[in-house]
Amino acid sequence: MQKCDALKLFAEIKEEEHKDAKFKIVLDIGCGSGNLTKHFYENFDCEEIIAFDKNEMMIEFSRQQNKIENIRFEIANLADQSDKIRRDIKLSENADLIYSIYCLHWLKDKQNAVKNIHNLLNKGKQK
Question: pTM for the complete prediction?
Answer without folding.
Answer: 0.87
